[in-house]
Design goal:
This protein has eight helices and 20 strands. By secondary structure, the chain is α+β, with helices and mostly antiparallel strands. A six-stranded mixed β-sheet has the order 6-7-8-3-9-10, with helices on both faces. A five-stranded antiparallel β-sheet has the order 13-12-11-14-20, with no helix packed on it. Helix 2 crosses helix 3. The longest helix is centred in the middle third of the chain and has 16 residues.
Length: 351
């Protein structure tokens, strides 16, 4: 188990990681989700031993490793900008951590060939990195992390620079690639969809602070605060400040049935895929700003109640800018937050 006990790191007046307590089990897949600058890489560097915390301690399998340098830890790390040894073949790149560990030659050969096969690198083992595509180079870096069989594997946006098809393939394969090792896998990403595909557990980060940690679907469906809901929404979460009066939420240009809760001021959140065009439910009047057609889906950017909202519609929708549309939603999908951003309802929002 990896444990961060009240860990924090500052650089001058800048807070890189706010006080954090976190426990990650062996064999688990864990996602650090947050925008650029939220503290994901800083947290990974503390876990790896590349940086030392300014407060708190780090424990691994019951031992305090806070002051132990990275070279004395059995950690594998893969970065967004893949790093390979340019003068070594793919085979030797993958084998390098095993040679450092003085593993027997026959065992090195077995593990390198097995790992290369799993990552579809078999035909390229005698090539140098410069002779590979970007995807093949990143798979080589991943293979080096896998072959090491380290108990802690840290992946810092490792697929961000790959083409879409390869990124999708590796997203699905990564949990399986590490499943048999019993390693703790920690994967940093800015993309909510990536967190959902990887599953496991997710920690959402904002300004160096973990806002929520738990099973990925639970964090997605039941965010504990508005920041977590916004972090776990792409396209951005649609929000509106409302007042609850009796059985309704109301704002200028907006009205919806409300659950049994105290009257007062609230913030409502609706994910783009929970909005529908011309369907049953509470009706909102919207004005189209622009449509983004992705092929199988269309992002419709709207003005609703004086705010910019996004609706995700299936298929191809061709709507002209300035067109008036009716937008509806299921009130059960509303996420309700107090004015201070804390969740006001424990009701599940359907995925």
């Amino acid at each position: 188990m990896l444990e961060l006990r009240n860990v924090a790191r500052t650089a001058g007046s800048e807070v890189c990681v706010a006080e954090t307590t976190l426990a990650l089990e062996r064999g688990s897949v864990n996602v650090l989700l947050g925008p650029t600058g939220s503290g994901k890489t800083s947290l990974l560097r503390l876990m790896a031993g590349l940086d030392r915390p300014t407060a708190g301690s780090i424990w691994f399998d019951g031992a305090d490793v806070t002051g132990r340098p990275v070279r004395q830890r059995n950690v594998a790390m893969v970065y967004q900008q893949f790093v390979n040894y340019p003068t070594l073949s793919v085979y030797e790149n993958i084998a390098s951590p095993l040679r450092v560990a003085a593993v027997a030659a026959a065992e090195i050969d077995r593990r390198v060939l097995e790992t290369a096969e799993r990552l579809k690198l078999g035909p390229y083992l005698q090539r140098k990195p410069a002779e590979l595509s970007g995807g093949q180079q990143q798979r080589t870096a991943l293979a080096r992390a896998i072959v090491k069989a380290a108990p802690l594997v840290l992946l810092d946006e490792p697929l961000a620079n790959l083409d879409y098809k390869l990124r999708e393939e590796l997203r699905e394969e990564l949990p399986r690639l590490f499943a048999d090792t019993g390693s703790i896998l920690v994967y940093a990403t800015t993309e909510p969809a990536e967190a959902l595909l990887l599953g496991g557990a997710t920690a959402t980060l904002s300004q160096g602070r973990i806002t929520q940690f738990g099973p990925t679907l639970a964090v997605f469906r039941e965010p504990g605060d508005l920041i977590t809901a916004q972090t776990f929404s792409d396209p951005p979460l649609n929000t509106i400040a409302v007042a609850k009066r009796g059985a309704r939420f109301v704002a200028e240009g907006f009205a919806s049935p409300a659950p049994a809760m105290a009257d007062g001021d609230y913030i409502l959140g609706l994910r783009p895929h929970h909005l529908r065009l011309d369907a049953d439910g509470p009706a909102l009047h919207g004005v189209v700003r622009v449509c983004e057609i992705t092929g199988s889906e269309t992002y419709v950017h709207l003005q609703i109640a004086g705010r910019d909202w996004v609706l995700l519609a299936g298929g191809v929708r061709s709507l002209q800018p300035g067109a008036a549309v009716q937008v509806s939603f299921d009130p059960a999908q509303l996420m309700v937050f107090h004015a201070d951003g804390q969740a006001a309802s424990a009701r599940k929002a359907a995925a």
